């Protein structure tokens, strides 16, 4: 089980003052030092946190892997093809949303996404699709050539009642099994925190998790290195 850390909110904090600190590059170094298996950044169309130069600098400096999360717009695809991250994670992106609000509708956009995946494959960049734990979306992801799926855990993370929580966890586990059966690598992410991560980490078919907000929030109180180490301990 690998942990990739989304450091977008280091850039959010930096941009609040328009200066250079805290530096996402420095955050990435600390995460790697603390045991993270990869660094995730989302280059949004509105550049509200991570900027183009951050992605370029991270590409040159990180020693684990760079997972570039992005919408499938022509502009961002062109930048990603130029930077060549280790992994692309395609997500739906809406301008007004506070954060990614759900999985991609792969079924409805097969042709468009297949074309984008093919462009990345030409450069030997693997592609992950962020999808809800729904069989038809997983099947469509396989059909159009995705290497990996990232199961959206946001609904599980927001569930309040125990029954609902168990039901959503079951859906994530079945989706993970199905993804594996189809030969996809299976990641999970969104809304995972120190309280809800263990149950997801216990699903054997999940290879990797992508976690941001909770780790960066905890880092404000205990420091980034400790926040990362605590998360890794819980996952294990
Ligand atoms: N995975 C994807 C595809 C995301 O869009 C995000 C949020 O940027 C995350 C994981 C991390 O979510 P969180 O910040 O809630 O841990």
Order of strands, main sheet, comes to 1-2-3-4-5-6-7-8
State the shape.
globular
**CATH hierarchy: architecture:** Alpha-Beta Barrel
Low-confidence stretches: none
Major sheet description? 8 strands, parallel, barrel
Distance between the termini: 8 Å
CATH-assigned fold name: TIM Barrel
Gyration radius over CA: 17 Å
Number of domains: 1
Give an overview in words:
The protein has 236 residues and is an alpha/beta fold. It has a single domain, classed as Aldolase class I (TIM Barrel), CATH 3.20.20. The protein contains 11 helices and 8 strands. It has helices spanning 8-17, 24-33, 52-61, 74-83, 110-122, 135-143, 154-158, 162-181, 197-201, 213-222, 224-235, and strands at 2-6, 38-42, 66-70, 87-90, 127-131, 148-152, 185-189, 208-211. Strands 1-2-3-4-5-6-7-8 form an 8-stranded parallel β-barrel, surrounded by 8 helices. β4 (87-90), α5 and β5 form a beta-alpha-beta unit. α2 (24-33) runs parallel beside α3 (52-61) and α10 (213-222) packs across α11. The protein is globular and about 45 Å long.
């Amino acid at each position: 089980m690998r942990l990739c850390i989304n450091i977008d909110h280091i850039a959010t904090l930096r941009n609040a003052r328009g200066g250079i600190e805290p530096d996402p590059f420095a955050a990435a170094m600390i995460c790697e030092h603390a045991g993270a298996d990869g660094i995730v950044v989302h280059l949004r169309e509105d550049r509200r946190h991570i900027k183009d130069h951050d992605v370029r600098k991270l590409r040159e400096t990180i020693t684990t892997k760079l997972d570039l999360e992005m919408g499938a717009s022509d502009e961002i695809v062109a930048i990603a093809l130029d930077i060549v991250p280790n992994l692309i994670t395609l997500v739906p992106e809406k301008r007004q949303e506070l954060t990614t609000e759900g999985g991609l509708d792969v079924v409805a956009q097969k042709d468009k996404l297949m074309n984008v995946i093919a462009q990345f494959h030409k450069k030997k960049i693997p592609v992950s699709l962020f999808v809800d734990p729904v069989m038809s979306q997983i099947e469509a992801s396989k059909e159009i050539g995705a290497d990996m799926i990232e199961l959206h855990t946001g609904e599980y993370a927001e569930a309040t009642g125990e029954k609902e929580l168990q039901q959503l966890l079951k859906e994530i586990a079945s989706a993970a099994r199905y993804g594996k059966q189809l030969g996809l690598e299976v990641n999970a992410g969104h809304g995972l925190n120190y309280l809800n991560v263990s149950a997801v980490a216990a699903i054997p078919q999940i290879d990797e998790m992508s976690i941001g907000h909770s780790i960066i929030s905890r880092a404000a109180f205990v420091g980034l290195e400790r926040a990362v180490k605590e998360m890794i301990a819980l996952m294990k």
